[in-house]
Amino acid sequence: MNNLNFSAGPGALPQAVLDETQRAIAMVPEAGLSLLGISHRSDWFAAVLAEAEANIRRLLDLSADYHVLFLHGGATLQFSMIPLLLLRGRTRTAEYLHTGYWSGKAIPEAQREGAVRVLWSGADSGFTRLPTDAELPCTADAAYLHYVSNETVEGLQFHRLPGRDDVARVCDMSSDFLGGPIDAGRFALIYAHAQKNLGPAGVTVVILHQDLLRDAPDDLHALLDYRNHIAAQSIFNTPPVFAIYVVLLVTRWLLRDIGGLAPMAQINRAKADLLYGAIDASDGFYRGRANATDRSLMNVVFNLPSPALDAEFLERAAAAGFHGLPGHRSLGGIRASIYNALTLDAAAALCEFMLDFRRRRS
Ligand code: PMP
Asked: 34, 71, 92, 141: which sits with the fewest CB atoms below 10 Å from its CB?
């Protein structure tokens, strides 16, 4: 039995990280206590936060103009905190791309705070593709542009940066953060919850450029004001110590075991090539959902010729130890999530299973 974790999130974590986490739950040697019972005000945790931040800065080659925060509330809270900071009480319009399920969740939250223009929506095409640059009428006077770099549900990923460099680019990278190098300096704000590439649920990394804080509204609830989290260095209230520690371990793994984001991207590309290759070579038995140029390297979404075959595939896959493959509840079908920690061997094993299943069924 393989027991491989293709879950869309919380997803697979590197085995070395799981092993070390297990030891830390028993006892963190430097602290002499269980990871689950160490104060967030301890020197040990101050060092954890500092190293996690430093590692993220190093991985992304971030300049000192950016703040790095570890916040609660998931990516969903960022759907609100961003317009609270950048739209509340302003006359300018925020531009949003509606490319799938998750970007669609961000839009109504922004509309509570001010004017929103949806520059492009994939609703008519069933969210099977992303817009081209020619389809995006971005304007120079927008308050900011918000988009989702990887639509986790539909398996669509931007392989370029949409938008203009003279407008604040705000991106939900929850499902592809640290999956490969990015040009971080071209973003005003990046956010990513941990439970895909980074760690367990409970913490969201927010990277924001200091210029965004100019003219921040003064009437924000304390916990919703980035300035408080910056001033308190992510300890404004009790942070998720456990989740942040695991994020630290994952960043160490990326730096030491993988060698940074360029090699990580190569591995991710190889996994995706295997799975999309199996889909494309199946004579239509496996049907990829996304337009080929917009295919996600993180979530491979596909169907079989009938819902009955989808169900049979999922049942047999689970029995063979391939877990987390059912598509999002809104779509059905199959979704193989191949985040950073999912190994090339695991992707190859799933390809084998797909080949075998097709041989028996077609
Ligand atoms: N954005 C994206 C791209 C997601 O994939 C998800 C959840 N899978 C969310 C936002 C919502 O995240 P959370 O549950 O952490 O609020």
From this structure: 141
List the pLDDT tens digit at each of the 362 positions of the chain: 457 999 999 999 999 999 999 999 999 999 999 999 999 999 999 999 999 999 999 999 999 999 999 999 999 999 999 999 999 999 999 999 999 999 999 999 999 999 999 999 999 999 999 999 999 999 999 999 999 999 999 999 999 999 999 999 999 999 999 999 999 999 999 999 999 999 999 999 999 999 999 999 999 999 999 999 999 999 999 999 999 999 999 999 999 999 999 999 999 999 999 999 999 999 999 999 999 999 999 999 999 999 999 999 999 999 999 999 999 999 999 999 999 999 999 999 999 999 999 999 87
| Ligand 1 closest atom vs CA 77 | 16
Q: Choose among 38, 122, 119: nearest CA to 291.
A: 122
Topology (CATH level 3) of domain 260-361: Aspartate Aminotransferase, domain 1 (3.90.1150)
- Ligand 1, atom 9, lies closest to the CA of 75
Q: Which amino acid is at 236?
A: F
Q: From the CB of 149, is ligand 1 less than 6 Å away?
A: no
Q: Which of 196, 253, 271, 310 is catalytic?
A: 196
Dist CA 177 CA 326 (whole Å): 23
Please indicate whether residue 102 is annotated as part of the active site.
Answer: yes
Question: Which atom of ligand 1 has the smallest separation from the CA of 150?
Answer: 3
- 172 catalytic? Reply is yes
pTM greater than the 0.90 cutoff:
yes
- 74 C-beta closer than 6 A to ligand 1: yes
The catalytic position among 19, 43, 65, 102 is 102
- Cα-based torsion angle of the residue sequence 289, 290, 292, 294 in order, rounded to the nearest 10 degrees: -170
Minimum CA distance residue for ligand 1 atom 3:
174
Domain residue limits, the chain: 16-258, 260-361
Pairing label, strands 204-209, 299-303:
unpaired
* Triad 177, 76, 193: Cα angle to 5°: 25
Report how far ligand 1's centroid is from the alpha carbon of 103 (Å): 9
Which atom from ligand 1 is nearest to the alpha carbon of 204? 15
CA of 105 to the centre of ligand 1 (A): 9
CATH architecture of 16-258: 3-Layer(aba) Sandwich (3.40)
**187 to each of 33, 86, 216, 265, 346, how far by Cα in Å?**
39, 14, 18, 20, 33
